[in-house]
Amino acid sequence: MENRSSIVLGKAEAIHEQMASILRLAEKFGDSGSDELKAALNRYQRELHNLYAEELPIARLKDNSDLLVRAVGVSADHDAPMLKAVAFVADKVRTNLGQLSKSVSPMLKKIPTGNLPWVFNGFAHGSIMMGFSLQKPTEEIEKALGDELYEALSTTAQDIAFVPQFIDDVDVNTAIAEVITDPAIRDAVLIAAHNLSPTANIGLHTIEVGSRTGGYGELTMKSRQVLSGVIKKPKLLHKKHGSFTGVLEAADLGAGRLVMRNIIDATDVSAIRCLVPSSLRETIKKGFGELVTITGEYETDSTGKPRLFTVDTIEPSKHPQQSI
Prior knowledge:
5-stranded mixed β-barrel; 3 domains; single chain; CATH 2.40.50.140; 5-stranded antiparallel beta sheet; alpha+beta
Protein backbone atom coordinates (compact mmCIF):
# COMPACT_ATOMS: atom_id res chain seq x y z
CA MET A 1 0.00 0.00 0.00
CA GLU A 2 1.40 3.38 -1.07
CA ASN A 3 2.07 5.65 1.89
CA ARG A 4 0.52 9.08 2.26
CA SER A 5 3.78 10.96 1.67
CA SER A 6 4.24 9.27 -1.69
CA ILE A 7 0.73 10.26 -2.73
CA VAL A 8 1.38 13.93 -1.87
CA LEU A 9 4.74 13.90 -3.64
CA GLY A 10 3.05 12.30 -6.65
CA LYS A 11 0.58 15.19 -6.78
CA ALA A 12 3.46 17.67 -6.60
CA GLU A 13 5.33 15.87 -9.38
CA ALA A 14 2.22 16.04 -11.60
CA ILE A 15 1.93 19.79 -11.02
CA HIS A 16 5.62 20.31 -11.86
CA GLU A 17 5.07 18.40 -15.10
CA GLN A 18 2.02 20.53 -15.95
CA MET A 19 4.02 23.72 -15.32
CA ALA A 20 6.86 22.48 -17.50
CA SER A 21 4.40 21.60 -20.26
CA ILE A 22 2.78 25.03 -20.15
CA LEU A 23 6.16 26.76 -20.29
CA ARG A 24 7.22 24.68 -23.30
CA LEU A 25 4.01 25.56 -25.14
CA ALA A 26 4.34 29.24 -24.21
CA GLU A 27 7.89 29.32 -25.54
CA LYS A 28 6.87 27.50 -28.70
CA PHE A 29 4.15 30.04 -29.48
CA GLY A 30 6.00 33.10 -28.18
CA ASP A 31 3.60 33.66 -25.32
CA SER A 32 6.02 33.47 -22.38
CA GLY A 33 5.10 36.87 -20.91
CA SER A 34 1.31 36.85 -21.08
CA ASP A 35 -0.92 37.57 -18.08
CA GLU A 36 -2.73 34.28 -18.64
CA LEU A 37 0.53 32.35 -18.33
CA LYS A 38 1.53 34.23 -15.16
CA ALA A 39 -1.89 33.56 -13.61
CA ALA A 40 -1.66 29.85 -14.42
CA LEU A 41 1.85 29.56 -12.98
CA ASN A 42 0.83 31.46 -9.83
CA ARG A 43 -2.09 29.07 -9.36
CA TYR A 44 0.22 26.05 -9.65
CA GLN A 45 2.73 27.63 -7.27
CA ARG A 46 0.00 28.13 -4.67
CA GLU A 47 -0.99 24.48 -5.04
CA LEU A 48 2.64 23.40 -4.62
CA HIS A 49 3.04 25.58 -1.54
CA ASN A 50 -0.03 23.97 0.01
CA LEU A 51 1.26 20.49 -0.78
CA TYR A 52 4.76 21.08 0.59
CA ALA A 53 3.88 23.32 3.55
CA GLU A 54 0.56 21.84 4.65
CA GLU A 55 -0.17 18.37 3.29
CA LEU A 56 3.30 16.80 3.20
CA PRO A 57 4.21 17.39 6.90
CA ILE A 58 0.85 15.93 7.95
CA ALA A 59 1.24 12.97 5.58
CA ARG A 60 4.70 12.22 6.99
CA LEU A 61 3.36 12.35 10.54
CA LYS A 62 0.57 9.93 9.60
CA ASP A 63 3.00 7.57 7.91
CA ASN A 64 5.50 7.49 10.76
CA SER A 65 3.41 7.86 13.92
CA ASP A 66 1.72 5.21 16.01
CA LEU A 67 -0.43 7.98 17.48
CA LEU A 68 -1.26 11.33 15.93
CA VAL A 69 -2.93 14.01 18.05
CA ARG A 70 -4.43 17.36 17.11
CA ALA A 71 -5.66 19.77 19.76
CA VAL A 72 -8.51 22.19 19.03
CA GLY A 73 -9.53 25.22 21.09
CA VAL A 74 -8.78 28.86 21.78
CA SER A 75 -5.30 27.96 23.08
CA ALA A 76 -4.52 26.09 19.86
CA ASP A 77 -4.76 28.99 17.42
CA HIS A 78 -3.89 27.87 13.90
CA ASP A 79 -0.97 30.28 13.50
CA ALA A 80 0.24 30.86 17.05
CA PRO A 81 -0.81 28.21 19.60
CA MET A 82 -0.18 29.06 23.24
CA LEU A 83 2.95 27.51 24.69
CA LYS A 84 1.05 26.14 27.70
CA ALA A 85 -1.30 24.26 25.37
CA VAL A 86 1.57 22.82 23.33
CA ALA A 87 3.34 21.73 26.53
CA PHE A 88 0.10 20.29 27.91
CA VAL A 89 -0.54 18.13 24.86
CA ALA A 90 3.06 16.96 24.51
CA ASP A 91 3.34 16.08 28.21
CA LYS A 92 -0.07 14.38 28.28
CA VAL A 93 0.76 12.16 25.32
CA ARG A 94 4.27 11.31 26.53
CA THR A 95 3.12 10.52 30.07
CA ASN A 96 0.15 8.43 29.02
CA LEU A 97 1.99 6.44 26.38
CA GLY A 98 4.66 5.67 28.96
CA GLN A 99 2.01 4.61 31.48
CA LEU A 100 0.26 2.54 28.82
CA SER A 101 3.50 0.68 28.09
CA LYS A 102 4.07 0.08 31.78
CA SER A 103 0.54 -1.26 32.22
CA VAL A 104 0.49 -3.45 29.14
CA SER A 105 3.96 -5.01 29.26
CA PRO A 106 3.28 -7.42 32.16
CA MET A 107 0.10 -8.58 30.45
CA LEU A 108 2.16 -9.66 27.44
CA LYS A 109 4.31 -12.06 29.46
CA LYS A 110 7.39 -9.88 29.09
CA ILE A 111 8.62 -6.83 30.93
CA PRO A 112 11.10 -4.64 29.01
CA THR A 113 14.68 -5.22 30.09
CA GLY A 114 15.64 -1.86 28.69
CA ASN A 115 14.05 1.46 27.86
CA LEU A 116 11.63 1.61 24.93
CA PRO A 117 10.86 5.33 24.89
CA TRP A 118 8.13 7.05 22.92
CA VAL A 119 9.61 9.60 20.55
CA PHE A 120 8.23 12.83 19.13
CA ASN A 121 8.03 12.53 15.35
CA GLY A 122 7.23 16.10 14.47
CA PHE A 123 4.89 19.05 14.60
CA ALA A 124 2.63 19.99 11.69
CA HIS A 125 1.14 23.39 10.87
CA GLY A 126 -2.53 23.67 11.78
CA SER A 127 -3.65 24.05 15.41
CA ILE A 128 -1.47 21.74 17.53
CA MET A 129 -0.70 18.56 15.60
CA MET A 130 1.94 16.13 16.85
CA GLY A 131 3.03 12.60 16.02
CA PHE A 132 4.48 10.01 18.39
CA SER A 133 5.90 6.54 17.88
CA LEU A 134 7.66 3.86 19.87
CA GLN A 135 11.41 4.04 19.37
CA LYS A 136 12.91 1.00 17.71
CA PRO A 137 14.71 -1.12 20.32
CA THR A 138 18.44 -1.58 20.26
CA GLU A 139 19.71 -4.88 18.92
CA GLU A 140 20.46 -6.08 22.46
CA ILE A 141 16.95 -5.30 23.73
CA GLU A 142 15.35 -6.71 20.59
CA LYS A 143 17.12 -10.02 21.14
CA ALA A 144 15.85 -10.13 24.73
CA LEU A 145 12.27 -9.21 23.90
CA GLY A 146 11.72 -10.37 20.35
CA ASP A 147 9.29 -8.54 18.07
CA GLU A 148 6.17 -9.48 20.02
CA LEU A 149 6.35 -6.85 22.74
CA TYR A 150 7.40 -4.01 20.44
CA GLU A 151 4.60 -4.70 17.97
CA ALA A 152 2.04 -5.17 20.75
CA LEU A 153 2.90 -1.86 22.41
CA SER A 154 2.81 -0.06 19.08
CA THR A 155 -0.58 -1.59 18.24
CA THR A 156 -1.97 -0.78 21.69
CA ALA A 157 -1.10 2.91 21.28
CA GLN A 158 -2.85 2.92 17.91
CA ASP A 159 -5.95 1.41 19.56
CA ILE A 160 -6.50 4.72 21.41
CA ALA A 161 -7.69 6.22 18.12
CA PHE A 162 -10.57 3.72 17.93
CA VAL A 163 -12.01 4.53 21.38
CA PRO A 164 -13.99 7.72 20.57
CA GLN A 165 -16.27 6.02 18.05
CA PHE A 166 -17.60 3.77 20.83
CA ILE A 167 -18.34 6.54 23.35
CA ASP A 168 -22.01 7.51 23.62
CA ASP A 169 -23.74 9.96 25.94
CA VAL A 170 -23.39 7.87 29.10
CA ASP A 171 -21.26 4.80 28.40
CA VAL A 172 -18.80 3.01 26.13
CA ASN A 173 -20.51 0.62 23.73
CA THR A 174 -19.59 -3.01 24.40
CA ALA A 175 -18.89 -3.40 20.67
CA ILE A 176 -15.44 -2.01 21.44
CA ALA A 177 -14.60 -5.55 22.57
CA GLU A 178 -14.74 -6.62 18.91
CA VAL A 179 -11.91 -4.20 18.09
CA ILE A 180 -9.84 -4.46 21.28
CA THR A 181 -10.48 -8.07 22.18
CA ASP A 182 -8.19 -8.48 25.21
CA PRO A 183 -10.05 -7.19 28.32
CA ALA A 184 -6.82 -6.15 30.09
CA ILE A 185 -5.49 -4.23 27.09
CA ARG A 186 -8.90 -2.65 26.50
CA ASP A 187 -9.01 -1.40 30.09
CA ALA A 188 -5.54 0.16 29.78
CA VAL A 189 -6.46 1.82 26.47
CA LEU A 190 -9.67 3.30 27.92
CA ILE A 191 -7.67 4.82 30.78
CA ALA A 192 -5.18 6.31 28.30
CA ALA A 193 -8.05 7.80 26.25
CA HIS A 194 -9.56 9.29 29.41
CA ASN A 195 -6.26 10.87 30.41
CA LEU A 196 -5.76 12.33 26.93
CA SER A 197 -9.21 13.92 26.88
CA PRO A 198 -9.15 17.71 27.37
CA THR A 199 -9.96 19.56 30.57
CA ALA A 200 -11.72 22.91 30.84
CA ASN A 201 -8.81 24.87 32.30
CA ILE A 202 -6.34 24.58 29.41
CA GLY A 203 -8.31 26.28 26.61
CA LEU A 204 -8.79 23.12 24.54
CA HIS A 205 -12.17 21.56 23.81
CA THR A 206 -11.19 18.65 21.56
CA ILE A 207 -8.27 16.29 21.13
CA GLU A 208 -8.39 14.49 17.80
CA VAL A 209 -6.57 11.15 17.78
CA GLY A 210 -5.51 9.14 14.75
CA SER A 211 -3.27 6.22 13.91
CA ARG A 212 -1.32 4.99 10.92
CA THR A 213 -3.81 2.11 10.61
CA GLY A 214 -6.68 4.50 9.91
CA GLY A 215 -8.24 4.84 13.35
CA TYR A 216 -9.66 8.29 14.05
CA GLY A 217 -11.85 9.98 16.63
CA GLU A 218 -12.40 13.06 18.76
CA LEU A 219 -11.97 13.13 22.52
CA THR A 220 -13.89 15.93 24.26
CA MET A 221 -14.60 17.03 27.82
CA LYS A 222 -17.80 14.98 27.56
CA SER A 223 -15.69 11.97 26.55
CA ARG A 224 -13.59 12.49 29.65
CA GLN A 225 -16.69 12.51 31.83
CA VAL A 226 -18.08 9.30 30.31
CA LEU A 227 -14.73 7.50 30.43
CA SER A 228 -14.23 8.54 34.05
CA GLY A 229 -17.33 6.59 35.04
CA VAL A 230 -16.40 3.62 32.87
CA ILE A 231 -12.90 3.14 34.26
CA LYS A 232 -14.10 3.50 37.85
CA LYS A 233 -16.52 0.64 37.30
CA PRO A 234 -15.55 -1.43 34.23
CA LYS A 235 -18.30 -3.39 32.54
CA LEU A 236 -17.09 -6.99 32.55
CA LEU A 237 -18.26 -9.15 29.66
CA HIS A 238 -18.69 -12.92 30.04
CA LYS A 239 -17.86 -12.43 33.70
CA LYS A 240 -17.13 -15.15 36.22
CA HIS A 241 -16.62 -15.24 39.97
CA GLY A 242 -13.55 -16.74 41.58
CA SER A 243 -10.34 -16.43 43.58
CA PHE A 244 -6.67 -16.36 42.61
CA THR A 245 -3.48 -16.39 44.61
CA GLY A 246 -0.31 -14.65 43.54
CA VAL A 247 1.90 -11.61 44.00
CA LEU A 248 0.46 -8.14 43.38
CA GLU A 249 2.52 -5.44 41.68
CA ALA A 250 1.71 -1.82 40.91
CA ALA A 251 0.54 -1.10 37.36
CA ASP A 252 -1.30 2.24 37.54
CA LEU A 253 -1.98 3.14 41.15
CA GLY A 254 -3.63 6.42 40.21
CA ALA A 255 -6.35 4.48 38.43
CA GLY A 256 -6.42 1.71 41.05
CA ARG A 257 -4.87 -0.86 38.72
CA LEU A 258 -2.53 -3.62 39.82
CA VAL A 259 -1.14 -6.74 38.19
CA MET A 260 -1.11 -10.17 39.79
CA ARG A 261 1.80 -12.35 38.72
CA ASN A 262 3.33 -15.66 39.84
CA ILE A 263 -0.17 -17.10 40.08
CA ILE A 264 -0.52 -20.29 42.11
CA ASP A 265 -2.32 -23.28 40.58
CA ALA A 266 -2.74 -21.46 37.25
CA THR A 267 0.60 -21.84 35.51
CA ASP A 268 -0.95 -21.09 32.10
CA VAL A 269 -1.98 -17.62 33.33
CA SER A 270 0.96 -15.21 33.20
CA ALA A 271 -0.75 -12.17 34.71
CA ILE A 272 -4.13 -10.76 35.68
CA ARG A 273 -4.91 -7.03 35.57
CA CYS A 274 -6.78 -6.06 38.74
CA LEU A 275 -9.06 -3.17 39.64
CA VAL A 276 -8.86 -2.48 43.36
CA PRO A 277 -11.47 -0.31 45.15
CA SER A 278 -10.15 2.71 47.01
CA SER A 279 -11.12 1.14 50.33
CA LEU A 280 -8.53 -1.63 49.79
CA ARG A 281 -5.66 0.31 48.24
CA GLU A 282 -3.77 1.13 51.43
CA THR A 283 -4.07 -2.49 52.55
CA ILE A 284 -2.75 -3.72 49.23
CA LYS A 285 0.26 -1.38 49.25
CA LYS A 286 1.43 -3.10 52.41
CA GLY A 287 1.18 -6.46 50.70
CA PHE A 288 3.26 -5.76 47.60
CA GLY A 289 5.67 -8.61 47.02
CA GLU A 290 3.72 -10.98 49.29
CA LEU A 291 1.44 -13.85 48.34
CA VAL A 292 -2.20 -12.82 48.63
CA THR A 293 -5.55 -14.26 47.61
CA ILE A 294 -8.04 -12.03 45.79
CA THR A 295 -11.71 -12.78 45.34
CA GLY A 296 -14.13 -11.11 42.98
CA GLU A 297 -15.46 -11.09 39.43
CA TYR A 298 -13.37 -11.28 36.30
CA GLU A 299 -13.52 -11.28 32.51
CA THR A 300 -11.69 -13.86 30.41
CA ASP A 301 -10.11 -13.69 27.00
CA SER A 302 -11.18 -15.85 24.06
CA THR A 303 -9.26 -18.82 25.47
CA GLY A 304 -10.97 -18.64 28.86
CA LYS A 305 -7.99 -17.19 30.76
CA PRO A 306 -8.73 -14.48 33.36
CA ARG A 307 -7.51 -11.06 32.18
CA LEU A 308 -9.41 -8.33 34.05
CA PHE A 309 -10.38 -8.79 37.70
CA THR A 310 -12.43 -6.54 39.98
CA VAL A 311 -11.26 -7.23 43.53
CA ASP A 312 -13.89 -7.58 46.28
CA THR A 313 -11.66 -8.97 49.02
CA ILE A 314 -7.96 -9.55 49.60
CA GLU A 315 -6.29 -11.58 52.30
CA PRO A 316 -2.87 -13.09 53.03
CA SER A 317 -2.34 -16.40 51.29
CA LYS A 318 -2.09 -19.70 53.15
CA HIS A 319 0.32 -20.97 50.49
CA PRO A 320 3.97 -21.00 51.54
CA GLN A 321 6.03 -18.24 49.92
CA GLN A 322 8.38 -20.76 48.27
CA SER A 323 5.50 -22.00 46.14
CA ILE A 324 6.02 -19.08 43.79
